[in-house]
Design brief:
With 801 residues, the protein is an alpha+beta fold. Among the domains are: 128 residues, Agglutinin, subunit A, CATH 2.90.10.10; 97 residues, Hepatocyte Growth Factor; 90 residues, Phosphorylase Kinase, domain 1 (2-Layer Sandwich), CATH 3.30.200.20; 188 residues, Transferase(Phosphotransferase), domain 1. It is built from 17 helices and 46 strands. Strands 37-41-42-40-39-38 form a 6-stranded mixed sheet. β43 and β44 form a beta hairpin.
Amino acid sequence: MRIRGVSHLLHLLLLFLPFSAIAQTHSNISLGSSLSNLDENMSWRSPSGEFAFGFHLLPEKNLFLLAIWFDQIPEKTIVWSANGDNLVQKGSRVELTTNGRLVLNDHQGEEIWWTESNNGGIVVSAAMLDTGNFVLMSMDSIVWASFDNPTDNILPTQILGLDKNLTSRLIETDYSRGRFLFNLQSDGNFVFYPIALPTEYRYSPYWASNTYERGSQLVFNSSGRIYIKLRDGGSQDLAPANEVPTMEFYQRATFDFDGVFRQYLRPKTQFSDGRWAMSWSVAWFLPSDMCFIEFGILGSGACGLNSYCKMDENQRPSCHCPPGYSFLDPNNKYKGCEQDFRLQNCSQESQDRSKEEPQYQMIEMLNTDWKQSDYEKYSHVNEDQCREFCLNDCLCMAAAFRDGDCLKKSVPLSNGKMDPRIGVKILVKVSKNISTLPPPSVDTGKKDRSTLILVGSVLLGSSVFLNFMFFLAILLLCFILQGRKLREVKQDSTMLGKNLQSFSYKELKEATGEFKEELGRGAFGTVYKGSLVVDDSTSSVAVKKLEKVVEEGEKEFMTEVIAIGQTHHKNLVQLLGFCDEGPHRLLVYEFMSNGSLSSFLFGGLKPKWNLRMQIALGIARGLMYLHEECSTQIIHCDIKPSNILLDDCLTARISDFGLAKLLKTDQTRTSTGIRGTRGYVAREWFMNMPITSKVDVYSFGIVLLEIICCRKNVESKLGNEEEEILADWVYDCYREERLNLLVESEEDAMVDKQKLERLVKVAIWCIQEEQSLRPSMTKVTQMLEGAVAVSVPPDPSSSIG
């Protein structure tokens, strides 16, 4: 804390130094200088080279943005722009004119954008500073600064005063003015507004700091803390106060196109082969759940009209269309949806015809609602009555049913959201002509069969006997085709969700050469290598034959398969398909060419330190996704190196997740433990205590120690039957400040001893015997990334009597 205070004080002192002294540390841009986008490599860079000012090409539009970006990372992330609403073509120029104006001219010489001085001083030069601030300078002060004219980002050392705004982009790749505004109001309150584009009209706010008459500035200090400075001299953190050194991390806070304010971190570390450690990651964000927010009665909410919002696996709001609707603009899914059918006609003739032959039907959606679209309510009714009320009302396009209440909804449907907390069943009205049309292949087959029957009847009509025989053949053919159709429907059914393929036992038996090449065995079954056609291409796969699974039948198995199939994360092994045929239960996964983490760590050559750390972080991120970002939480229950696989790029991929519920109870509690030792299993397993996600945190802590030390968690001492427990030895080394022993003085690990100590402390926190002391996997991930400080851990067994 003292170091941070000194740093902040030095920063303030620098602000008050004569500007001529500061300017000497920068490469000044003289009056008359210019940049042309004819040379895309030209830019004005900061002295360190971290930031650049110039023209940024938007390839998808083949147009240019005058911008400031991070220049030393592959993404060239933009943090400020001048002409997002008016992009320019090739041949455009930006010039610091002799009268001190910074002017952007398009390819025809027309002025598109220019600066206006803040204090009327005479500009003598400009500079791109190492803070990311582009400034126009007089002899003794700053006349204009990009920091004072922000777009959608703020950077460390940047301060926003009252009546300043951050405006979101339209979409991620479109830098024009978007649908959300972050306003620092003159009354001291900091507020997020939806905007009625193309005007600047503000709808009701959806988030506020509630600092009326107290707030004065928004400060992003050099330590990564973002807070509201109060008028009484105090402060109010906008998010958890994290100590993140700018020497190790690039940082930015962005008011994103989806209306969420996020702080991003990116390590400055590069591997020896030139690869970067990782890209941008999110440290925190506001609001915590954009989809669940209650917007005002005007506007469309987080997504466009006739759509609904759902938080995705990365905790970002995503927009979707209800059944019978499609996006107005597939490239901008936040713009809303439109019906794929004609709206119901309200004329009396149409109503009478509809009663004779219904043209519409109701499609169910669970845990979904559009609260701002209600116009009529019925109480003490059942679901069938609610369905009929809406079908018989030409103005009703959806109905919400819960606990005997029925609410009719009209279009446009606004502020839609899908979330398990809603607990409402929505009935969406759609045309029967859309929802009941068979797939083209089925329809074509039906026509083909009709034609076959017609032609056969004509040709054989002269013979009663032959007609009879032909009739029997047709019946047999229809029976075969119907059976094939049912199998196809089972494969293609949306009950499976999500690109899962159904295989027969015979197919998998042939694909694996009758289960010839065994890849490994575990608590859940045996894995074999195979070759299958997946997504129209032949690929190597891993086929797992499940053993000793629960015997409740197909429903239990399919429930877990669907849950596994809905997971999508780069640090999880992807489930491709399944077999559920009689007693045979098999799962088909991606094949991981580099085997398991166990063979990687303990197979001979010691892997590089940086690669081991990359793998550890990947495992943490995968577990964080399973625990906290899936629609249904998944506890693995068997995290260990043999269940961590490595793909072609040596990225860690967690396998066997979601299978614990399929094991018989006695199998679950015995197979994952190492009897008589402190292995991968938390003490809860042996105490008949409730099993929570903290059992995976414990297991991860043990695996992290193995990754750090390249040693197994239990090893027999040479010439001695006694076993050495890795966790005990690590804690002894940590307490005695002999961390070099853990890595055998490995050069790459010892370069940054503070990082090594941080990793060891994270592992010790994870393996605390008292489960309440173990952090969540989100906290673990943040600590590994260095985004959150790690306090001194206690002895892991100290809280156990």
